[in-house]
């Protein structure tokens, strides 16, 4: 099995690293030299990595081609490429639907949309795929877990979740800044937040991911958890997040309805 990656940004690099760590039975991984820093890093990790300057060379030497280009350049780049009918295409591009991909990657028939996350490098990515494809599903299971969307609409809703990563990190960063501003040293701030976040995941799992139950159990009447939650609810913090998640969905839907 020979894999090719058009685009070696953060996501593609993380997937490749995760596959290498999993010791998957892959004969060759073809990557682009355009992201010079990432291509150098990956080539140092395995002799299976081969780098090419042209996208067409990656395609010609791969049975499965992963498209990890930015939305603004994906269509333009793919129009210049020639694919083989026997190949399988896996697209990481959020704003290209299956119909558009079939036109751009003609005569390929086997096309899958996938949304792996940077945690793939550590085998912890919850990867969304649509439609289901046995081989592609098995590959991404080596980098974490796989959620198969039932249709493109559900796929769009699931992809909305991936938009929360930077926001989530910003919320944690706000907590860290609060500690640093109030004379807690960097090492202790990191230590506290690291264990705190890990512990919260265990708490959710202990409650079988019944988050309403966790929200209730983590508050005591008149306590500080109850107070902060009520203050944020009063400020419509959660409602604003919900409104903006819907806006992200509408952006994805509009792009994928073309």
Report on this model:
The chain folds into 2 domains: 2-149, Rossmann fold, CATH 3.40.50; 165-256, Orthogonal Bundle (ProC C-terminal domain-like fold), CATH 1.10.3730. The chain contains 12 helices and 8 strands. The protein has helices at residues 10-22, 36-45, 55-60, 71-78, 98-104, 134-141, 152-162, 165-181, 186-206, 211-217, 224-234, 237-256, and strands at residues 2-6, 28-32, 49-52, 64-67, 88-91, 110-115, 125-130, 144-148. It has an 8-stranded mixed beta sheet with strand order 3-2-1-4-5-6-7-8, sandwiched between helices. Strand 2 (28-32), helix 2 (36-45) and strand 3 form a beta-alpha-beta unit. Helix 1 runs parallel beside helix 2 and helix 7 (152-162) crosses helix 12.
Brief overview:
With 258 residues, this protein is an alpha/beta fold.
């Amino acid at each position: 099995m020979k894999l090719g990656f058009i685009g070696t940004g953060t996501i593609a690099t993380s997937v490749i690293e995760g596959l290498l760590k999993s010791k998957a039975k892959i004969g060759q991984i073809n990557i682009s030299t355009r992201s010079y820093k990432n291509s150098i890093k990956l080539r140092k990790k395995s002799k299976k990595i081969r780098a090419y300057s042209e996208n067409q060379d990656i395609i010609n030497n791969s049975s499965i081609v992963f498209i990890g280009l930015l939305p603004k350049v994906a269509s333009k780049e793919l129009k210049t490429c020639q694919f083989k009918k026997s190949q399988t295409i896996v697209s990481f591009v959020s704003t290209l639907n299956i119909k558009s991909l079939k036109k751009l990657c003609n005569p390929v028939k086997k096309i899958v949309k996938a949304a792996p996350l940077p945690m793939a490098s550590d085998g912890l990515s919850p990867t969304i795929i649509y439609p289901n494809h046995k081989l592609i599903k098995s590959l991404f299971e080596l980098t974490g877990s796989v959620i198969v969307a039932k249709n493109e609409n559900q796929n769009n809703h699931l992809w909305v979740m991936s938009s929360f990563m930077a926001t989530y990190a910003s919320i944690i960063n706000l907590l860290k800044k609060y500690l640093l501003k109030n004379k807690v040293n960097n090492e202790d701030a990191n230590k506290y937040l690291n264990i705190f976040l890990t512990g919260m995941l265990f708490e959710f799992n202990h409650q079988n991911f019944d988050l309403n139950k966790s929200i209730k159990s983590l508050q005591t009447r008149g306590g500080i958890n109850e107070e902060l939650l009520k203050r944020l609810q009063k400020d419509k913090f959660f409602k604003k997040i919900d409104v903006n998640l819907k806006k992200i969905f509408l952006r994805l839907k509009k792009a994928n309805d073309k």
